[in-house]
Amino acid sequence: DAARGVCGYAVPLAAPSGLGHNRSFMQLPGAIILAAGRGRRLGALTRARPKCLLRVGTRTLLEHQLAALTEVGLKRVAVVNGFAGERVRQVGGPRLTYIVNKRSRVTNSFYSLWLAREAARDGFLLLNADVLFPPELLIRLLDSPYPDALSVERRERFGEEEMKVELRGDRVVALSKELEPPRAHAENVGVAKFSRGGAAALFATMESLLARPGCRAERELTPFAFNALAQHHLLHAVVINGIPWVEIDFVADLRRARREILPTLKACGAARVLPVPSPPAAVRTSGRSVAGVEP
Fold first, then answer.
1. Which has the closest alpha carbon to 276: 57, 129, 25, 122?
2. pTM
């Protein structure tokens, strides 16, 4: 975590007003945001809203991601929604395409991505909706010469919760939460890019997994598909160390996003925010008290 710097990360600057930083931006026709999940591990904070609508500063997580996509010139965005989908559509507005995962209660992000295969067939940028990051993370990924790549953070220590990635040079060899820590070199961030050819290979792999007896792939996370893809298709890693980011799975992650990550985004001009007030001792949320955390 110490590698996630405040504002001194060495990345190219984005072109003004999302006018296109280089050819890489033009090679991807759009983005897919996976936002169908509720985020039950956040407790009462997500009782009536998905975690992509939790606020960090003056914006929801979804709005932060849409702003970052606009900065790099990607305006064609499809959002896969499920839980509280109407609220997601209200925040996203009419300019987005919405794909409904009607089985979001019993499936996971693997299935949500599968539902978006038609929108993604020409190549796409993929974002998990619970990740907070500045536009510079997208720039680094899009600037990479690799056509199909995952953004990762290299690290030395891993817990059970991290999506661990095994690398051979810059090539992804395996990724899984169950990967033995001695084999792991990095953590998957939750932002990836796929070319037209990479998308075809990915969805062919997913179709095969869905057809496999007893696999129950629809209940898996997207890295389940990436791991299978990496066994027969070149999938690379783009290291984003030094760029601030956080995946929000637990209340502690949301606190960190507000107290540590948001100020760095503000300092770097990545988000226009108001000063973050000191949190109250307890906030009433949907009939339950969540100490020091607002939805």
1. 57
2. 0.84
